[in-house]
Amino acid sequence: VNCTGQALSAVPSGLPEDTGILLLNANHLTSVSTAAFLPLAVLQDLDLSENGMVALNTESPLPSLRELLLSRNALVALPNLQGLPALIRLTLSYNTLQNLAPEAFRAVPLLQELDLRGNRLETLPGDTFAGLRALKDLDLSDNLLEELPKELLQDLEALETLWLSGNLLRTLPNDFFIDGHIFAYVFLTENPWHCDCDLSYLRNWIRIN
Question: Keywords on this record (predicted)?
Fold first, then answer.
């Protein structure tokens, strides 16, 4: 069901109960509750991007939801992800997230794609991504990250693509990358890398990989 750009200020009622994909992007849904989607028992993909959203109440579970798009809103905090156990794709790019809690994504262990690009993240706890053993794509580009904990990637056994571009990184800690892990892509451009001995680990890792 495509409700894109309809100037909606509330989730419309009477949507077909067999709706699997619901596009609500580019509306005026500044506050949304997952309770509005409970009649949609087979809903798998939900696009709520570009709504100026400041709050997403997720108290009502959506057990079949696989994709949740929340990009280009005004979220300052990560919504509670309990009740979304089937989620495999979550986009939160271009919001105003400033921090993430330890084990912030523990409730969505099947997640494969996580987009946090273009927020205001300055630091991350070492266990931010704990439990995300299925995660393949992680985008942390265009934030305000000055340093990263060496444990950040320790659970990300399936990670294929990592974006760190456009931050304030000057170096990476020793053993930041999991020994023997093979990436498809790692993007490191547009950081103020400081070329001294502290950068030798990263330089050697790039040469080997």
Answer: Leucine-rich repeat, Repeat
